[in-house]
Amino acid sequence: xxxxxxxxxxxxxxxxxxxxxxxxTRWPAYQHLPPDHALVKLSFIHHGQRLQECxxxxxxxxxxxxxxxxxxxxxxxxxxxxxxxxxxxxxRVLRRSAxxxxxxxxxxxxxxxRIEVPAGTHRFDVRLRDSxxxxxxDFERSExxxxxxxxxxxxxxNAEKGGITLQ
Amino acid sequence: xxRDARGAWTGCERVMDTLFxxxxxxxxxxxxxxxxxxxxxxxxxxxxxAVLDTSVEGAWxxxxxxxxxxxxxxxxxxxxxxxxADAFVLVAGLHLLREWLFGHYRGFRRYSWLTGVPLLLFALxxxxxxxxxxxxxxxxxxxxxxxxxxxWLPIFGSPFTRNFLVAEAVSDRLFSLFVFVxxxxxxxxxxxxxxxxxxxxxxxxLPPKRLAAGSTATLxxxxxxxxxxxxxxxxxxxxxxxxAIDWLLLAVHPLMYATSxxxxxxxxxxxxxxxxxxxxxxxxxxPAVARVDAAHCNGCRQCFDDCPYAAITMQPHxxxxxxxxxxxxxxxxxxxxxxxxxxxxxSTPFRSVEPLTTGIxxxxxxxxxxxxxxxxxxxxxxxxxxxxVFGCDHGARVGTMESADVVAFSLLCTxxxxxxxxxxxxxxxxxxxxxxxxxxxxxxxxLGNRWTGERLLGLRQPRLRARVPRERLRVVWAxxxxxxxxxxxxxxxxxxxxxxxxxxxxxxxxxxx
Lengths: 167, 513
What we know:
The complex is a heterodimer of chains A (about 170) and B (about 525).
Chain A: H1 3-24, E1 30-31, E2 37-46, E3 55-56, H2 59-64, E4 73-74, E5 82-88, E6 91-98, E7 109-118, E8 120-129, E9 139-147, E10 152-158, E11 163-166
Chain B: H1 2-20, H2 30-51, H3 56-69, H4 71-101, H5 110-133, H6 137-151, H7 172-196, H8 209-225, E1 242-243, H9 247-250, H10 252-258, H11 261-281, E2 291-292, H12 302-306, E3 312-316, E4 325-329, H13 339-343, E5 360-361, H14 367-380, E6 387-392, E7 406-411, H15 420-427, E8 432-437, H16 448-456, E9 473-477, H17 483-494
Parallel strand pairs in B: 6-7, 6-8, 8-9
Antiparallel strand pairs in B: 2-5, 3-4
Helix pairs in contact in B: 2-4, 3-4, 4-5, 4-8, 5-6, 5-7, 5-11, 10-11
């Protein structure tokens, strides 16, 4: 092969190398969310209520304990799982239970879920149970919101702000 | 299927050979190219780190400012930084593919394979972490997707995703974590790369100058023509519907959204386990390793210098003479290539000791057998042209060259050939000698071609003596399937005028030991 063809071939291959990098670093565009859709992010990290209340130990129970461990109150650490439900426009889109973290199940339970919804006005009903009760919920919030295309709505839990928040 | 894939790869290498020449063929320097791209990333990264404002407010502005107001330097370095990272992943992936296709993960290569596989993983971690630092919408997308991927693992007390829920959640301290991930993983990658080349000697840490210059110029040209620009600043209240992503570094994110985080973990863990287990799942017949003869090893260190896999160390000689050493072969590292035999000064067929013994030899192909066969077969040739071909088991098939005037010897590696055998063959009546091996730059045992070429040129010990007529010696590096190059070289040797001694065959007088 003549030197000229060799040089041309090299230039073509270097250009092809550059083209592969140049093209695939930006093309094709990734469709992360359908057009005219918004994204709801539900993220709870919350300590459920204790499964058992603190109670006073009886003198007999205290006597059985080593002297250095005779605390008058017994407070079991285990916490309740949390149960989350989300309805959008009356349709159930999420129902999830999350266990408390930690070997003793005394940590916070967390839930994270992405929900894609068409942009527009929607009614959101969010419910959270964080106790050992078998029916009903400890926290509820209903709100009608208008979501723009590509908007992110965050559903969170903040006890200081009264519980479930939508922002 | 593997055979077809290997054939396709070899075909690509041949095409590249014709365009670049074998020495500059990028497909034969993929590992060295990866090192080159790493250093480009590191050098450009030093400047980028110096100007990066590691705060929520300043990160996007400081990086974007480089591309807009300092495009001729900072912007250029920024683009080079990104494109070199893409190029690194590309060539490292091709390097892995090539080694896998050619079965270079077994036996003595196991260590290099096992330390090489994680490099690609670390490269991806570094690459992904780099996108977070500029904190534009692509960085936001990547950081959020990575957090969602990590949160799938039930080992974190507090979900990472909460760091990217709302703008108030992103703190300046988070950028310290980003920097730590990006630079920390890069340093780990470099550390691991150092391990990766520990068991090969004379490791090629950079490609040949012209290839390095061409590759760097290509990336610089790309950086100038298509500079990397930041997308809009991160805004956690909106999500990008369609986003231009770097598929070479961020493909894992779309994969996760198309499947699930669990699926991505299963796929990546499975792929890693599969790659790690490859050396243990296939068993190749282990070649016999080099054997040292203490009586003939004088501790000259030439085998130690020439071994491509650092399988030889030196230790005090058992004869107890002060300062004298002996070669020690580490069986688990020995490739069984015989390059050490070719390097050993006593490996000369002119020695009179019977049987011919050398300091270090291959049990499956001792040089005494080679000398005996050379004498016998050369003596059997008739006519005024008698040509000897020395080749290797991995290059062009020298056996197919045999004819009425040609005898061929296929060695474990051409590097096993002591140069004195060329002179000996001519003294035995050969009118020409053809030395061949794997295609240039593609030696199965890395350094066989290089050492042989240097020895024949008199640049490396043991040297071919000056009095050997060079016009009767041809050196042709030809890979499997390129037998035509050998035929052309043989024709050229046949066309040479017959030397005055033509017709004289027999064993030359040997030097008394």
